[in-house]
Write a structure and sequence with these properties.
By secondary structure, the chain is an alpha+beta fold. Helix content is 40%, strand content 18%. Strands 1-2-3-4-5 form a five-stranded antiparallel β-sheet.
Length: 185
């Protein structure tokens, strides 16, 4: 189909995929790999850091225009946890912060307007907001158990304690890796 005859759905889908590919290439140096359509992860001994994109408006049916508005959500997964959800407890590109001019995380998939700025700001968000938060726990996973802004629930803290004390559960680790789309570690 000629580019000018594509539907808004096709334009948005193609634009979002292009943005995800470019984002992937630019964050590989941080150790993240794309593991699912809009998920990137890097694995540590007891945890995995992850980045999740959510396209604003994606739950409301077909897009009405070619605008792609991305929300970034970050989290740390305890690999000793077999639950079927990945908690998004880290920094998030809250729309009030994004709209205030700090991060411009949208572009027009038809015209390409602000595309480069969006990709730059997606990476900048991860570098400025995500990396400092992730790095707090990389060298000292036990901080996830004690710091006031830890995302972990009490039950998840117990799972981390078990893993740190040499009681990891292979099935839970496999479930965590599968949930995050990680095939090899």
């Amino acid at each position: 189909m000629p580019p000018d005859e594509r539907t808004a759905t096709e334009l948005v889908r193609e634009g979002l995929e292009r943005a995800c590919r470019e984002f992937t290439a630019r964050i590989e140096a941080l150790g993240f790999r794309r593991t699912k359509k809009m998920l990137w992860a890097r694995v540590h001994l007891h945890t995995a850091d992850f980045i999740h994109f959510h396209r604003h408006g994606s739950t409301y049916g077909a897009p009405i225009n070619a605008s792609v508005d991305i929300r970034v959500q970050l989290g740390i997964r305890i690999l000793n946890d077999a639950s079927q959800r990945a908690a998004l407890g880290g920094p998030s590109s809250d729309p009030t912060v994004v709209r205030s001019g700090r991060y411009h995380l949208r572009f027009n998939a038809k015209s390409g307007s602000t595309y480069e700025r969006c990709i730059d700001d997606l990476v900048r968000f991860v570098v400025e907001q995500g990396e400092p938060w992730f790095q707090r726990f990389v060298g000292n996973t036990e901080d996830l158990l004690t710091v006031p802004d830890s995302e972990l629930q009490p039950s998840t803290k117990e799972l981390l304690k078990a893993g740190l004390s040499g009681q990891p559960d292979a099935n839970s680790r496999a479930a965590s890796l599968k949930l995050l789309g990680i095939r090899k570690t």
